[in-house]
Amino acid sequence: MAIERVGAPCHLTIARNDRVWEQPRLTALPLRDYNATWSVFQSNLFAFKSTIFGVPRREFCYAGDWFFYLDLGTGIASQCYNGGYIGHLFDDVDRPIAFRPIGYQCPLAHCYNGHAFLSLGVIPELQTPTYASLRNRECPDGREWLTEPMKRFLSGKLAETNSQLSAEEQAKACYQNPKPSRFKLCKYALLSRILWKSKREHYREKLEKLRNPSKH
Ligand code: SF4
Asked: Which strands sit side by side in the sheet containing 85-88, from one edge to the other?
């Protein structure tokens, strides 16, 4: 149907099992068979997502600063899925937003929507294809799904228009990170909060070392 209506096969994502912390692929197939089944669509989105699916992110992530998660039903913003609380944006739309990067405290087992977040560059040190290249399709008649302006827009990286933090600023951001949101109904919220607490002391010490290297 996609070929008939829009000139090329649809892109694919990876369905996941949200009932367990690891959020694995939602399939009974062994991984090799799963990939063989779906790779026939030759979807760049699926191919890139397969490389990041299940990989915990250990790099400094600017979620909460360069983008955030907004619940349009309530107006509650958090740094990322299950990330720290940023604010209730609909309460006062003139109030400045308290942007705060989540840093090294990714609250999830893996960046399951990294085909968007990572390709747009929320972790600048990570080399990724552009989001445009994952979303576009070239049709047999030469037409493309993305128009030129949209292709240019989705080819950008967030670091081109945002400032990166120094090592000291990164440690400070991690130390001051807000608790994972208690407003979201997420059964993993408690686990995220325990992890957040255990990491807090680590970043306090790191910040101290960066500020006073001679003492350490
Ligand atoms: S899920 Fe992805 S975007 Fe969100 S904090 Fe983790 S690495 Fe960053």
From this structure: 69-70, 76-78, 85-88
Per-residue model confidence as pLDDT tens digits over 55-108: 999 999 999 999 999 999 999 999 999 888 999 999 999 999 999 999 998 989
- Ligand 1 binding pocket includes 63 (Cβ within 6 Å): yes
Q: What is the pLDDT of residues 27-39, one digit of tens each?
A: 999 999 999 999 9
Would you give the distance in Å from CA 40 to the centre of its chain?
26
The residue whose CA is least distant from atom 4 of ligand 1 is 80
**Spatial distance between the Cα atoms of 102 and 100, rounded to a whole number of angstroms:** 6
Ligand 1 within 6 A of 52 CB? no
Domain count, the chain: 1
- 8 Å CB contact between 115 and 96: no
**Structural domain of 116:** 2-215
**Separation of 105 CA from ligand 1 center, angstroms?**
9
Cα–Cα distance, 189 to 178 (Å, whole number): 13
Q: Up-side HSE of residue 66: CA atoms within 13 Å toward CB?
A: 22
62 CA distance to ligand 1 middle (Å): 8
- Residue 148 Cα to ligand 1 midpoint, Å, equals 29
* Separation of alpha carbons 70 and 54, rounded Å: 24
